[in-house]
Request: fold
Amino acid sequence: MKILFLTGPHAVGKSYFMQQLATTNNFFQFDTGPEMRRMHKESLSEKNIGEWVDELEKAYGPLVTCDMLCKVLESRERDTDNIIITGFRQIEGIEYMINYFQPENYEILYIDGIFELLKNNFILRENRNISDEDFQKYLLSEEEWGLRNLKDYVLNNPSNCRYIKKQSNSDAITTDIFKNNKVLKLNYKGDQND
Reply:
């Protein structure tokens, strides 16, 4: 098994990159966000998803949702062991999945972008305007939730991690984890999930 973990702030284009990479190659896509929302819905909990996760973590430990995601991924029928995972915003979740699956190879690809790019993509995706100040607060809340530690981890562990900071949506992103070096030059589409 080989796993590419895509991470970074919202609206940088991770899901779009994953979809484009998967359509040109034989990769299995796994987005943790929709999976968590599906599990929450199936739980029939009357609590919102954040409260539901907090309740689970208090009862079963801080990595219980990571364990649940691993079991879902393990149960999925796939015609390949090449997996692209996006949605993790904390290094602990990625490390849990690496320890759980023990892949022969993995890469954590942190895709970042300059402030203006992230804000413009966010406005396109959410179809609403936001001030620079409010968007900066939004980015800081993501960092505090775990992205800052994840970014630091990626920057300090170059053997299995890469950091890319996009200046524009047409910047090329590369990965060579699965086979030959794949280079994709992508344009962000405002209707994507990421």
In short: The radius of gyration is 17 Å. Confidence is low (pLDDT under 50) at residues 180-194. The domain at 2-33+77-185 is CATH 3.40.50.300 (Rossmann fold). Residues 83 and 186 are 20 Å apart (CA to CA).
